[in-house]
Structures are given as C-alpha cells and as structure tokens.
Amino acid sequence: MLTNPHPASPRWALAEQVTDAVRRRFSADVLAVGVHGAVAHGDDTEDSDLDLVVVTDGPSGGPRPATRRVNGSIVDLDVISAREYLAHARTLSTTWPLAADRYLTTKTTYDPGDWYPTLRDTHLARLAEAGTGEFTVLAVQAWYQACSAVGRARQLAGWYEMDAALVALSDARVSAAIVEGLLSRTYFRDDADAVRRTGIAGLGLPELGDRLAAQADTLARRGRPVDGTVADLFG
User: Fold this and answer.
1) How far is Cα 7 from Cα 30, in angstroms, rounded to an integer?
2) CATH superfamily of 10-128
3) Shortest CA distance to 17 belongs to which of 102, 105, 77?
4) Residue 64 DSSP label
5) pTM over 0.90
6) 72-86: per-residue pLDDT in tens?
7) How many Å apart are CA 85 and CA 120, to the nearest integer?
8) In the β-sheet with 73-81, what is the strand arrangement from edge to edge?
9) Within 13 Å, how many C-alpha atoms sit on residue 55's CB side?
C-alpha cells in the first residue's frame, strides 16, 4: 500500500479499503490498483465518485467490474487485464481528449511492480509518435459527430421539445469541445472540464454553430476539409 496522498479524503480511505479487499480475495491475479478522476486529482468532495481500476495479469482474473454506493459514495470498480490496458494506452481515437487523463494522472493504491508508470510511459510514447496529421484526421471524425449533435439539438428546439433539446445541446457542446481538444492535442478531466476549458460552456446553438464553422476552417487549412463529394465517401 502506498502512502496516502490525500489524508483528509474519506474517499481515498475508501479506495484503500476496496484495495485491501481486492488484494485479500484475488492476490494471485492482481498486478495493480489505481484511482482516477476527482480523487486522483485531490479535489474530490462528498459528491464525487470513486473511480478505481484493477489491473489483472490475465483476461479472466480478479473481481468482476461492479458499481455500488458505499459509505455514501458511488464506487465504480473497473477491471482490465494489463495487456488490454496497454493496448488502450497505445490507441488514439476521437475519445482521446476524455480518455487520456486516466493514463496520465492515476494515483495508485497498490502497485508493487510499478505497472502504472509503464502505462503512463506507453501512452506518452504513443503521443510522441503521433504527428499533427493523425490528430487532424481524428478531429475531422469528431467534427462530424459534433455537427450531427448540433443538428439534433436544433431540430428538437424547432419542435419545441425543449427538455430534449437541452440534453442534445449539452451533447453538442461536449462534442465540439472534443474537436478543440484534438486540434490542440489537449486532454480534459471530464465532459465538464472540456466545455469549461474550451470556452464552450454556456454557448447557445448559434454560437456553437459559429464555433463549428471556425473549426471547419481550421481543418481545411490543415488539408482536411469537412466537405466533399460522393466519390470521397469511397476513397
């Protein structure tokens, strides 16, 4: 067990309790246990979830993934094999701006073999290999998702389905923030952090449309225009 970096956090204490239970019951299968999210960043509150990842030696070892409320906190216990987790760390996709934080800022509650530093180094090495063009291609794909989300929000608003339109607008904001993250190679802690740091939080549909237009201009300047022909669909 590592020294508690957040001695005042009851959620960190809970993470240690869960880790102890995992180690007692699955000692032969578990390589490491880590915490990500607000608890890892050290700014969790009584409303924060506890996000734990158990890394196993093989694909069938360790506990089953589970979610429960324990001592007033939602505990999300994820379980993944070391091989699969490293494969995720080497994969870049449109979800990268929201996925990278767990590779880079996880705090460990059990890691005798320094496995989590290996995960971090693996991801950083993949980022070092990726050029601007690779992130631009991903940004184009994310832009299409964002454009579709804005369209859904606009359609629902036109039908005066205001509650549904607000949900769609929230999705559209997050999608547009992901595009920004890919264009700038910036990762975020979560959805809320993404829209806040990109200045997209609070934007209405007209302003969000303007932001997408600006993103499309940036992509075009990088040689990846979002508009094409029917033939482009096949080549």
Assistant:
1) 25
2) Beta Polymerase, domain 2 (3.30.460.10)
3) 77
4) P
5) yes
6) 999 999 999 999 999
7) 11
8) 66-70, 73-81, 50-56, 30-36, 107-110
9) 27
